[in-house]
Design brief:
With 152 residues, the protein is α+β, with helices and mostly antiparallel strands. Helices cover 30% and strands 32% of the residues. Strands 1, 2, 3, 4, 5, 6 and 7 form a 7-stranded mixed beta sheet that branches. A hairpin with an 8-residue loop joins β2 and β3. The longest helix has 16 residues. Bound molecules: coenzyme A (COA). Coenzyme A binds next to α1, β3, α4, β4 and α5.
Length: 152
């Protein structure tokens, strides 16, 4: 969060996700004090002549005592850059971090129903009925870490 790109990350989250449900970053942080600081923050960065531009972002919350899977949150891509594969690259980076480096057994998210095809195309499974969050219908989606290749 001390990275200079954090300010752009927050602006993007507010534009694409938070403002539409009546929140800004302070309101989001107040919903779960300390969570923002606990997360790892991922940004997709575009090299622009005037400097780096954040065009996508997501956060990763480590597993807890009650939840063995890590939670992927705040996944969003600049509205003008959606459909270019940026979201997919972000999720691949998160899976590589979680499974390859942290040894986490799985990932989950609360997916807006409209975004479910995005996760399905990445191999994620639906793992709950519909529930409401921030006034929007969601389902839990998740993916388990790949099994290690069997040794012969
Ligand atoms: C959902 C989101 C993060 C996807 O990022 P993206 O960069 O646009 O996705 P990609 O370009 O990597 O798309 C990968 C595939 O998912 C599909 N996809 C992406 N978003 C989709 C959506 N909302 N509905 C249906 N399919 C979608 C794409 O068509 C693409 O399919 P293809 O490979 O067959 O062409 C982005 O569209 C976004 O920010 N949406 C608004 C915020 C949001 O809904 N966030 C998720 C909250 S749970």
């Amino acid at each position: 969060m001390s990275d200079p790109l954090y300010e752009q990350e927050v602006a993007l989250r507010e534009q694409v996700l938070l403002n539409s449900v009546g929140l800004d970053i302070e309101g989001y942080k107040a919903m779960a004090p300390g969570r923002e600081e606990k997360c790892e923050h991922f940004v997709a960065v575009f090299d622009h002549p005037k400097g780096e531009r954040v065009v996508g972002t997501a956060t990763l919350l480590a597993p807890t005592d009650d939840e063995p899977f890590a939670k992927v949150m705040q996944v969003c891509v600049d509205k003008q850059r959606q459909g270019e594969g940026i979201g997919t690259k972000l999720m691949i980076a998160i899976e590589a971090r979680a499974f390859g480096e942290m040894g986490i057994p799985g990932l989950y998210c609360h997916a807006q129903l409209a975004a479910m095809p995005f996760y399905e195309k990445l191999g994620w499974d639906t793992a709950s009925d519909v529930f409401m969050e921030a006034g929007i219908e969601h389902k839990r989606m998740q993916i388990s870490a790949p099994k290690p290749a069997e040794s012969r």
